[in-house]
Amino acid sequence: MDRGRVAVYAAAAVIVAVTVLSGPAVGLVDLTTPRYDMSGLGEGSAAVDEVDLPSSVSLDRGYQSQSYYLTVPDARVRFATVEGKPTVAYGIDIPALGYSRSTTHFLRDGDAGWASLSLREDTFAEDAVDADRYEGELSLVVRDSDGKSVVANRTVPVEVRE
User: Fold this and answer.
1) What are the respective helix, strand and coil percentages of the chain, to the nearest 5?
2) pLDDT, tens digit only, all 162 positions of the chain
3) How many helices and strands in the chain, by DSSP H and E?
4) CATH class of the 44-161 domain in this structure
5) CB 83 within 8 A of CB 45
6) What's the CA gap between 71 and 58, in Å, rounded?
7) In the chain, what's the furthest Cα-to-Cα distance?
8) Which residue among 1, 103, 130, 158 is least crowded, i.e. fewest CB within 10 A of its CB?
9) Which strands, in side-by-side order, build the sheet including 122-125?
10) Which residues pair with residue 125 across a beta bridge?
11) Is the pTM of this model over 0.90?
């Protein structure tokens, strides 16, 4: 038997063995365990000392493009203490564009100090942007055992740049 055929049979045997061993009939191996322990998420506490939200946001036209790119600078937060697994959400709302986006950052015991929170760049079609400037609202929300609390809120100009 040639080496190519042996390799094919060996690969097929490994695939079948892993499928059977991890399947519901045998269940010897669990391949679905999460990398991050999600239990207790949003529980605990986070004390915020200082927040630095950006003073403006921009919608930049892409180079030789028919799109605009929303760029939101990072927010910086200084946590005095973090206990458990609270979360912090950084978001932006632009009502005139019907746009809202936020991202959740997961904290854990001992994450005290400065943290940078970011929002991914987003794209708008050319026909969606019809003004030179919009009003946006940045927010920072902590979720912990005490519930949801707005730590910072700021109205910012969203400058459209050609």
Assistant:
1) 15, 50, 35
2) 688 888 888 899 888 888 887 777 776 777 776 666 666 677 888 889 999 999 999 998 887 778 999 999 999 999 999 999 999 999 999 999 999 999 999 998 888 899 999 999 999 988 898 899 999 999 999 998 888 999 999 999 999 988
3) 1, 10
4) mainly beta
5) yes
6) 5
7) 73
8) 1
9) 99-106, 87-94, 133-144, 147-161, 57-61, 67-71, 122-125
10) 67
11) no
Token reading at 120: 């991914």
Can you tell me the distance from the alpha carbon of 9 to that of 111, in angstroms, rounded to the nearest whole number?
50
Burial class (CB in 10 A: 0-12, 13-18, 19+), 138: buried
Coil, helix or strand at residue 90 = strand
Phi/psi-derived region of residue 80, left when phi > 0, alpha when psi is between -120 and 50, beta in every other case = alpha
- Read off the tokens for 114: 């400065």
Residue 14 burial (CB count, 10 A): 10
Return the H-helix or E-strand segment holding 114.
strand 113-117
Going from N- to C-terminal start, the domains of the chain cover 1-33, 44-161
User: H-helix or E-strand containing 119?
Assistant: none
Which H/E stretch holds residue 58?
Answer: strand 57-61
By DSSP bridging, strand 147-161 and strand 57-61 are parallel
The C-alpha atoms of residue 23 and residue 19 are separated, in whole angstroms, by 6
